[in-house]
Amino acid sequence: MIRTLLAQVREFKLVSILTPVCMIWEVICEMIIPVLMGRIVDRGVMAGDVDYIIRTGGVMITVALLGLTAGVLGGFFAARAGAGLARNLRKAMFDNIQTFSFSNIDHFSTSSLVTRLTTDVTNIQNAYMMVLRMAMRAPSSMVVAMVMSFLINPRLASIYLVAVCVLALFMVLMMRTTTRYFKQVFERYDAMNESVQENVSAIRVVKAYVREDYENSKFRRAAENIYEMFMRAELRVVSISPFMMGVVYCCILLISWFGANMIVSDTLTTGNLMSLLTYCMNILMSLMMLSMVFIMITMSEASARRITEVIREKSSLSNPENPIMEIPDGSIRFEDVDFSYRPGSAEPVLKDIDLSIRSGESIGIIGGTGSAKSSLVSLVSRLYDVTQGRVLVGGHDVRDYDLEVLRGQVAVVLQKNVLFSGTIYENLRWGDENATEEECRRVCRLACADEFIEKMPEGYNTYIEQGGTNVSGGQKQRLCIARALLKKPKILILDDSTSAVDTATDAKIRRAFAEEIPDTTRLIIAQRISSVENCDRIIVMDNGRVNGFGTHAELLAGNRIYREVYESQTGEGADADFDKM
Q1: Are strands 491-495 and 410-413 parallel, antiparallel or unpaired?
Q2: Burial 525-544 (b: 16+ CB within 10 A, else e)
Q3: What are the DSSP calls for 413-458, one per residue?
Q4: Which of 82, 277, 389, 544 is disulfide-compatible with 337, CB 3.0–4.6 A?
């Protein structure tokens, strides 16, 4: 875990090294000042030597300025190193997320990934800055102060040693109980972020069903859970401070008492007592700094593990050693295919799939909800790998292709249509970033999107809000179809992508496909028979199996499920749907 995190320091190694160097420099300066103060008292004040006081005072000012410079530089370098590490961690996670297959993404919820990219990284950033500054400064300050104290008077310095041992034992005990609470806090963060994300993304539904009070109470419960866990952890943390201050004051009283007696008996000078008191504060303040470091490390340990999980996650899909870089045609073949989303599942999602589709064919796919229509087409672009058997595109196993090449030639319009914030042109150019305006307009005509785009005040430069909230469901579907067509794919998959458009527009889109892209293999998932009856052939899916495969006429004559659905949609029960069959 530590190695994974430190690997992201990279170009910030120099400032990461300079920070503790500056801290040691600052400690040396701080340790010199008490010695100089003692000399001023013993040799200057007690002897009445004003020149010595001025000379030594000048040296003290110089040392103090050097220490101040070291502290400022240390803070600057630590801030730069911490911010740089945070940047690299976020980039490393985000870059790795982009390589995830759908099965990898299933391991992490969206809210969890957001928490890891934000809160968890911020915790690591703060901890790293504190470690660079305090983890070097506090121990070195404590050790040097302890050595200097023993050089001045071992008897009085032994008081510090006892105090340090007592405080260290107390801190270890407190940290062990605190760690458990901080681990639970970040799990609660995921739940809260999930609540916020769900509420914001579905705000229209929330308002339509007047569920604001329910959502408020759900968020309040999540926030209160975090509050309670943090309070339990913080109460244990803050208990360290009064105990530590009590020990500090006891040390000061003991040193003052025994030191005063030693001064009276001429075994200790006044200047040495002042130095010892100063070193006392240095030692105990260093211990307090160390406690803060331990607290921050404890808080960030859970964050470090969660970040490491994302960075180390390997995609379940990978390119072969010598991938095929060109797809000959759009032919598709399923050979004895079984598929499960989770390895070892008792019942596969797809079972015994054997299909052969010629390049340029138009294939309709119908079936009830849960019949695995979407799972079937997901295997074509290798969004998932088959559990058993093979899927061939252009005569080659999809696992033999370079992933980018394969997906570049397979355009998919999923059930959940997604548009990104930006103009219509910018959204369309997801299909081809170098597409001309004329090419964008052409695919919009094919998808029947030009009808509503040209009515917009700014036309193709109209700004689309995040998630496409300022366009209707049907308009969003047509823009997504146009975006897919801009890829000029060999295979086009439409996963129930015209469900929100009217029947006349659906017919126009299908006719445009037949006339304008006859060489592209089209897989059209639909619930309406009218959307697929003119396809070259139609696949009937039922419970993860192919129940029928043939032309509209062949299925009407020989497939009971298809015939019943057709009759229900074209006869008196025209409002019936597939799932009621």
Answers
A1: parallel
A2: bbbbbebbbebbbbbbbbeb
A3: E-SS----SEEHHHHHTTS-TT--HHHHHHHHHHTT-HHHHTTSTT
A4: 389
Residue position matching structure tokens 């899916």: 541
SS3 491: strand
- The answer to whether residues 303 and 85 touch, using CB atoms and an 8 Å cutoff, is no
Distance between CA 127 and CA 124 in Å, rounded? 5
Per-residue model confidence (pLDDT) at position 92: 92
Which residues, other chains included, contact 229 with Cβ-Cβ below 8 Å and sequence gap of 6+? Answer: 181, 184, 185, 188
Q: Which amino acid is at 173?
A: L
Are 192 and 223 in contact by the 8 Å Cβ rule? The answer is yes
List phi, psi (to 5°) of 100.
Answer: -65, 140
Which of 83 and 53 is assigned the larger pLDDT?
83
> In three state form, how does the secondary structure of 113-157 look?
HHHHHHHHHHHHHHHHHHHHHHHHHHHHHHHHHHHHHHHHCHHHH
Q: What pLDDT shows up at residue 245?
A: 76
Give pLDDT, residue 499. Answer: 67
Distance, in Å, from the CA atom of 434 to the CA atom of 417, rounded to the nearest integer, reads 22
Total length of the chain: 581
Closest CA to 182 of 229, 137, 227: 229
Interstrand relation of 463-464 and 422-423 (parallel, antiparallel or unpaired): antiparallel
Bridge partners, residue 332, by sequence: 357, 393
End-to-end CA distance of the chain: 54
pLDDT at 94: 92
How far is 304 from 167, CA to CA, in rounded Å?
A: 27
Q: What is the pLDDT of residues 409-427, one digit of tens each?
A: 888 887 677 888 889 899 8
Half-sphere exposure of 544 (CA within 13 A, CB side): 12
Q: Is the pLDDT of residue 574 over 50?
A: no
The pLDDT of residue 337: 93
Kindly tell me the burial class for residue 121, based on how many C-beta atoms sit within 10 Å of its own C-beta (0-12, 13-18, 19 or more): buried
Backbone angles phi, psi at 370, to 5 degrees: 85, 10
Rounded CA-CA distance 312/141 in Å is: 37
Q: Which of 487, 455, 486 is nearest to 471 (CA)?
A: 455
Whether residue 98 is predicted with pLDDT greater than 70 in this model: the reply is yes
Please report the pLDDT score of residue 576 as a whole number.
45
- Report strand pairing: 362-367 vs 521-525: parallel
Neighbours of 556 (CB within 10 A): 15
What is the average per-residue pLDDT within 497-502? 68
Cβ–Cβ < 8 Å for 462, 456: yes
Q: State how far the Cα of 464 lies from the Cα of 477, in Å rounded to an integer.
A: 14
